Amino acid sequence: MSDYPPLRLHVPEPSGRPGRPTDFNYLQLCPAGRAEKPPVDVAPVDTRELATQLIRILDEDGCAVGPWATEEAPDLLLQGLRAMLKTRLFDARMLKAQRQKKLSFYMQCLGEEAIAVGQTLALRPDDMHFPTYRQQGILIAREAPLDEMICQLLSNARDPLKGRQLPVMYSYRDLGFFSISGNLGTQYIQAVGWAMASAIKGDTRIAAGWIGDGATAEGDFHAALTFAHVYRAPVILNIVNNQWAISTFQAIAGGEGITLATRGIGYGIAALRVDGNDFLAVLAASRWAAERARRNLGPTLIEWVTYRAGPHSTSDDPSKYRPADDWAHFPLGDPIDRLKAHLIGRGLWSDAQHQALAAELEAEVAAAQKAAEAHGTFASDLAPSAADMFEEVYQDLPPHLRRQRQQLGK
Amino acid sequence: MTVQQETDLPTQAGSRSTLTMIQAIRSAMDVMLERDDNVVVFGEDVGYFGGVFRCTEGLQAKYGASRVFDAPISENGIAGAAVGMGAYGLRPVAEIQFADYVYPAIDQIVSEAARLRYRSVGQFTSPLVFRMPCGGGIYGGQTHSQSPEAMFTQVCGLRTVMPSNPYDAKGLLIASIESDDPVIFLEPKRLYNGPFDGHHDRPVTPWSGHPASAVPDGYYRVELERAAVVRPGKQVTVLTYGTTVWVALAAAAETGIDAEVIDIRSLWPLDLQTLTDSVTKTGRCVVVHEATRTCGYGAELVSLMQEHCFHRLEAPIERVTGWDTPYPHAQEWDYFPGPSRVGAALKRVMEV
Ligand SMILES: Cc1ncc(C[n+]2csc(CCOP(=O)(O)OP(=O)(O)O)c2C)c(N)n1
């Protein structure tokens, strides 16, 4: 007989489930303006506090407060607001198009628009993002042609990826947007490799790696942090902690009792934990990390605290695993509403202007959709050529693929 | 052995040195580091120390630590960083210390490097080489002897290459580094210091006794997708690569069977024409490799020969391979497909 009680396996659970509200105290929030702003050459270990607190600039009233607050140019903020709103309207419309079976699949970034848009506006056009499928805000902030993006979603005759990729797996080299892979986490270490290459060549460009809370559990996350630290790679390592990985709560990814930003400290990487729904904080933290990277001071890990407001994808039903009204209770709110309130508070914006902008953007997205659909929708007659299927497997078509193409009769 | 490779480059000017396979591989990297600023070499222990097999010795001192450097012990990290560097525009030559340790990198190689050009319609490419010592015959046991080529030949988008001598090793590695497709470059470590015909009880012969050790000092290529007929013959075709090329030559000599031995060199995509021409001529075929049998690369060779040479075949195609077991330690020579097993197969196909 053992003199110890039987061991028990601990399996983390979210506090909220369907019909039972979430207790968001686990987020360990702190008021806007509280977190300190260290110099960009801070030693990674000295960011320990910043990895456990929360960098926030916008307070409850929409005022910018604290050491991270800067006097932002109104134009930039309006550009950000516009890109966020456009992203949201784009998502909403594509969701509807998926329901109408015009496209096979879609993934929104509802509630997370500030992060991708804000960081993009803080970086230079020739910096390279290694995004996941939930950073469409990068493309919209960089003004990718919407109709072309929609052609990718529709897998039609004008799809720039020739119908080879699932919808949302965009690739825009010229816009600094690396080809999206279905395999989670792989791009994180690739971002580090790209940044190492920039350093090897004595370039001044930097890379941004992106990953979700769930995928931080992948081995490539560990490899990325190790390599970024070892070679002091000029990279910003973003973790978008939207609390959910499909149906699994972030505690299952290892977030229980600690913050994901803390991971950076253990690897010797400067780490920040930032309010991901505070557009000003996204800009400020991204600029800080970019400056650090560009001055060859090494990588920065940023945990963006946000909430995945929508379903994981069009194949997902969140009401099966979390409270239906969860987003309404999420303490960091809605990034678009918060920036809007700030701009209105500064006298730079109004409800009427906001409505007009929404109408204008809605019309723009609708027109882009119409233009794209003229080239076909998913599984319509206007499909990418089957013969194209064999191209670009290799640089040149090898004999066996030539034979297979002939066998297909195309 | 006929040094068929000579015909790959008709105008072969310049000086030559007598090199081992290790030195030839090192020379290929040296030449490419010199020629192309975008070539970088990295992996576990490859920097200051020069690699556990000395393949990168002196390269860091010559080109600096930003071109030739040590990596953390993380194969997924090495492969993933290489993909990112390739996307930037570099030409990374990454070393996996043993082919047996490539498995952590498989996701990056299969899901990323091999697919990047396809999925981005050529916006991003993976001009990468993953060098890895492979094969047995060195008492390496389970994790220093494997031949995982079939894990790669079945991946669309990859090129898989394996040299069997110093001349080819350098020329193929240069061609691989220059390829804009990702290349898995498998180096039979049993051949690093000398050819090996499977007679483990005889003294090792160094490369210096073989014509294929006369390696041009400068730049040259052995083109990919080209097999070499290393022993012309009339009675039976042996399709093989790596260490078993030497085993097959020994088996032909010892049985007196006039076998045509083909070193496939580029396993996939491959030089189908040279293979089918030979089997069409001889009407008989034996496939030899060290790797395990079931679903090994040999199965594809058998299938291709059956498909393209069916009416000319006079006997069932034989396969002599490693057994379907993990690579054992003490039983090395019962596992390794040596000349007596290959010879027996040659006799069997001749008897039909
Ligand atoms: C290697 C791998 N495993 C599993 C999946 C299936 N999958 C797709 S998305 C996802 C959840 C990812 O969650 P997270 O990283 O938190 O990102 P989020 O979707 O919340 O943005 C899973 C498990 C995958 N795409 N790749």
Regarding quaternary structure, what we see is heterodimer
Strand order within the widest beta sheet of chain B? 3-2-4-5-7-6-12
Estimate the global geometry of chain B from the Cα principal axes. Answer: globular
Helix and strand sequence of chain A:
HHHEHHHEHEEEHEHEHHHH
Q: State the shape of chain A.
A: globular
Proportion of residues in extended strands of chain B: 15-25%
Q: Cofactors and ligands present?
A: thiamine diphosphate
**Strand segment count of chain A:** 7
Tell me the total number of β-strands of chain B: 14
Number of contiguous helices of chain B: 12
Helix content of chain B: 25-40%
Strand arrangement in the largest pleated sheet of chain A: 1-2-3-7-6
**Low-confidence runs of chain B (pLDDT<50, min 5 residues)?**
1-11
Report Rg of chain A: 22 Å
Element-level helix/strand string of chain B: EHEHEHEHHEHEHEEEEHEEHEHEHH
* Largest beta-sheet details of chain A: 5 strands, parallel
Helix content of chain A: 25-40%
* SS content category of chain A: alpha/beta
N-C termini distance of chain B? 28 Å
Mean pLDDT of chain B: 96
GO molecular function (chain B): oxidoreductase activity
Enzyme class (chain B): oxidoreductase
EC number (chain B): 1.2.4.4
Protein name (chain B): 3-methyl-2-oxobutanoate dehydrogenase (2-methylpropanoyl-transferring)
